[in-house]
Design a protein that fits this description.
The complex is a heterodimer of chains A (111) and B (114). With 111 residues, chain A is mainly β. Chain A contains no helices and 11 strands. In chain A, the strands form 2 sheets. In chain A, strands 2, 4, 5, 9, 10 and 11 form a 6-stranded mixed sheet that branches. In chain A, β9 and β10 form a beta hairpin. The N and C termini of chain A lie far apart (41 Å). Chain B is mainly β and 114 residues long. Helices cover 0% and strands 48% of the residues of chain B. Chain B is built from no helices and 11 strands. In chain B, the strands form 2 sheets. In chain B, strands 2, 4, 5, 6, 9, 10 and 11 form a 7-stranded mixed sheet that branches. Chain B has a 4-stranded antiparallel sheet with strand order 1-3-8-7, with no helix packed on it. Classes of the chains: A mainly beta (111), B mainly beta (114). At the A-B interface, β4, β5, β9 and β10 of A face β4, β5 and β10 of B.
């Protein structure tokens, strides 16, 4: 079955430093979504990537989908305390909602 | 105000008791899902429903049951057969069941079995 590895599991950064989380799949994906979950909250959709090599930006967040559609990354430039939370990738294969969630990367930002 | 509601936010039950978690959506979404979240693990799919009066087992359905009698509602029952029911339960919905449809999550119910 499809396996999705997300690394790192935890990351502590000083405010202003950059942060990156990676999602790697054992199989080729059809698309990938990224979610953010604040402490005590629920996952909230951030972005979806569909095309090979796709790059999307949301302010300080940059999302990439690998050329082989087996990996993806989320990069945050100059982190702020509001970035604190757990970032999940949701990896899709096939035509329907057969999704595998990554374990999540918990980001702590030290002011 | 559209969205997904789950109640209650916190739930305590004694071991051996069945408990039903509520999930309601007013987004007019066809598909609904139940996930379980445990510390250090990704979300795991319990059950999903593509359309009213239809539902399918997910990856960890043992010890759980669902119903989908109305489009807006997808309650989850945690039965006494579930070996380790203490967890954070998340309900989600999506417009349809194709892969590019975004899932919208409810606020979750934290179940503790004593």
């Amino acid at each position: 079955g499809q396996q999705v590895m997300q690394i790192p599991q935890y990351q502590h950064v000083q405010e202003g430093e950059d942060f990156t989380t990676y999602c790697n799949s054992s199989t080729t994906l059809s698309n990938i979504q990224w979610y953010k979950q604040r402490p005590g909250g629920h996952p909230v959709f951030l972005i979806q990537l569909v095309k090979s090599g796709e790059v999307k930006k949301q302010k300080r967040l940059t999302f990439q989908f690998g050329e082989a559609k087996k990996n993806s990354s989320l990069h945050i430039t100059a982190t702020q305390t509001t970035d604190v939370g757990t970032y999940f990738c949701a990896a899709y294969s096939g035509g329907y909602q057969k999704v595998t969630f990554g374990i999540g990367t918990k980001l702590q930002v030290i002011p | 105000d559209g969205g997904i509601t789950q109640s209650p936010k916190y739930l305590f039950r004694k071991e051996g008791q069945n408990v039903t978690l509520s999930c309601e959506q007013n987004l007019n979404h066809d598909a609904m899902y139940w996930y379980r979240q445990d510390p250090g693990q990704g979300l795991r799919l319990i059950y999903y429903s593509q359309i009213v009066n239809d539902f399918q087992k997910g990856d960890i359905a043992e010890g759980y049951s669902v119903s989908r009698e109305k489009k807006e509602s997808f309650p989850l029952t945690v039965t006494s057969a579930q070996k380790n029911p203490t967890a954070f339960y998340l309900c989600a919905s999506s417009t349809g069941f194709i892969r590019t449809d975004t899932q919208y999550f409810g606020p979750g119910t934290r179940l503790t079995v004593l």
